[in-house]
């Protein structure tokens, strides 16, 4: 219809008229036909703020940053003619391309013209600084706004969430409500994503209830954020419930539930949802195949994974990226084909990808291929000399082989390079309070009750076959001292606290800052058996959903 109108304007001799050109630009950009918009733009004589603004937004909406760069460069010399929409458009370009220097220069120009007090320009500044990882500057731009609306509040919350300042983002949500500002669907989505970052299930449930009361629960962005929050908080069944209740879904909805299932070790469910997605004629995206290949890796489906990577993605016009290749490395490792995994890394130009090498290193430990493991560790340390996890895995390999001289060598190297092992920290929410535990912390206010509970649990699981795994203790000390050290690992302390303070039969959810160790994994599986509790642990690798002595990871992580 727009093209027909354009044709009529050409026949009428009005196509080059100033207002007609601007209307055509706007129409083509809104209809996502940027190429046609460019042809019209080239006919616009001189500088016209509306035309330039339309072109920048058109390129940004299509993700064509090279095009927006060209338009911005041609605008710079005409800064005196910019209107407030021009500032918003150029700042949007800076945010999308993370051009902080240009963003600061535009901010300076806005200050000269007192436009930083304009709520639209101010919100764009907040967004730009947030995406350029300058949360403090984003907050400063927000604070100077004389009038703050829901858009500016949502923008600063988004800036905090993007920079992983989740608690601060949730505090802003409370401040917003105290100021009498009514949150919209995007505000709720940002707050729920902050809960996802903290795995704060109770806060997420409260926000969900609030969204129901205000009539925002059914909004697509809110439902997508709810799926993400439940999946990252260890309640994948609730994520699935939200997914089923959605009145309409987009590719983000499908991706969130597929990746959620994959992270919970429910690979078959992830694959089932993927096939449902294809049946619903929803086109998979780049992210979809990251989840699908992760699921294939958990199931050891090498041939299927190669089919999706080499054939289906090509048919759908999706170019494989680093994440897909890294998933394939994990898939080959899971199948025990470690040499093939090494060759795959080298042959697919991801030899500089530390994540891929670390996946192979972890598998070398699982399959006790210490020779390859040492070689891979050396490769990682060449790329990233201060990677703490690599030193720990290398030290673990030496310890499991009773090579204490190797452990000493690794520790000496860490001291020389100034690398420190991050202490194990676990946290658990009981009621409205979050309790934090550090490994070997004997000063916690509940330490006496926790110690009694831990000893009771250890005695119970020893009866059904538990034997402390001294290989994960990196100190060459007596076995009695090793056993005590293992007992006071942070996740065991958090679990004991949860068992003491939660109702009988309640699910226990624990978060950990490091990969769960082999001994804790075995012990907690047995504890779930003797206590008849469902225990969900989120470590840096994945979720471990443990029930009746069985973990969703199939003992591979």
Automatic annotation (TrEMBL):
Biological process per Gene Ontology, one example term: RNA modification
Molecular function in Gene Ontology: RNA binding; zinc ion binding
This protein's UniProt keywords: Repeat, Transit peptide
Residue windows of the PPR repeats: 48-78, 149-183, 250-284, 285-320, 387-421
Name of the featured protein: DYW domain-containing protein
Highest taxon above the source species: Eukaryota
The DYW domain, residue ranges: 465-557
PROSITE patterns: PPR
């Amino acid at each position: 219809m727009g093209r027909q109108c354009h044709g009529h304007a050409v026949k009428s001799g009005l196509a080059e008229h100033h207002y007609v050109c601007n209307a055509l630009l706007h129409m083509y950009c809104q209809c996502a036909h940027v190429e046609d918009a460019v042809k019209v733009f080239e006919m616009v004589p001189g500088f016209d703020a509306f035309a330039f603004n339309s072109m920048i937004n058109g390129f940004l909406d299509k993700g064509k940053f090279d095009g927006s760069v060209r338009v911005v460069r041609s605008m710079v010399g005409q800064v005196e003619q910019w209107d407030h929409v021009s500032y918003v458009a150029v700042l949007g370009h800076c945010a999308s391309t993370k051009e902080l220097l240009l963003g600061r220069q535009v901010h300076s120009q806005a200050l000269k013209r007192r436009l930083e007090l304009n709520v639209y320009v101010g919100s764009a500044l907040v967004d730009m600084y947030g995406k350029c990882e300058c949360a403090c500057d984003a907050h400063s731009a927000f604070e100077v706004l004389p009038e703050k609306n829901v858009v500016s509040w949502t923008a600063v919350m988004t800036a905090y969430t993007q920079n992983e300042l989740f608690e601060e983002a949730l505090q802003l949500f409370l401040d917003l409500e105290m100021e009498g500002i009514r949150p919209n669907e995007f505000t709720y989505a940002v707050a729920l994503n902050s809960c996802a970052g903290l795995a704060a299930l109770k806060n997420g449930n409260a926000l969900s209830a609030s969204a129901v009361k205000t009539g925002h629960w059914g909004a697509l962005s809110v439902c997508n954020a709810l799926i993400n929050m439940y999946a990252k908080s260890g309640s994948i069944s609730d994520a699935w419930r939200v997914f089923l209740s959605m009145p309409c879904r987009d590719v983000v909805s499908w991706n969130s539930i597929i990746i959620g299932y994959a992270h919970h070790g429910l690979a078959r469910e992830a694959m089932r949802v993927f096939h449902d997605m294809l049946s619903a004629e929803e086109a998979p995206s780049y992210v979809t195949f990251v989840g699908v290949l992760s699921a294939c890796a958990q199931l050891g489906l090498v041939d299927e994974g190669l089919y999706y990577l080499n054939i289906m993605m090509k048919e759908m016009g999706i170019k494989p990226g680093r994440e897909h290749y890294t998933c394939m490395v994990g898939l080959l490792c899971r199948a025990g084909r470690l040499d093939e995994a090494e060759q795959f890394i080298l042959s697919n130009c991801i030899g500089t990808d530390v994540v891929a090498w670390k996946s192979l290193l972890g598998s070398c430990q699982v399959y006790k291929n210490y020779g390859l493991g040492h070689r891979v560790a050396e490769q990682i340390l060449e790329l990233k000399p201060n990677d703490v996890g690599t030193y720990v895995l290398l030290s673990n390999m030496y310890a499991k082989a009773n090579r204490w001289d190797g452990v000493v060598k690794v520790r000496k190297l860490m001291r020389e390079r100034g690398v420190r092992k991050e202490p194990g920290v676990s946290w658990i929410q009981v009621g409205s309070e979050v309790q934090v535990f550090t490994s070997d912390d004997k000063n916690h206010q509940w330490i006496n009750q926790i110690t009694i509970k831990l000893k009771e649990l250890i005695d119970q699981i020893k009866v059904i076959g538990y034997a402390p795994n001294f290989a994960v203790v990196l100190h060459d000390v007596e076995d009695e001292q090793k056993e005590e050290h293992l007992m006071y690992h942070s996740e065991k302390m958090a679990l004991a606290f949860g068992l003491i303070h939660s109702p009988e039969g309640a699910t226990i959810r624990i978060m950990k800052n490091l990969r769960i160790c082999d001994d804790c994994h075995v012990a907690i599986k047995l504890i779930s058996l003797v206590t008849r509790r469902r225990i969900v642990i989120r470590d840096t690798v994945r979720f471990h959903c443990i029930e009746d002595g069985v973990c969703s990871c199939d003992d591979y992580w």
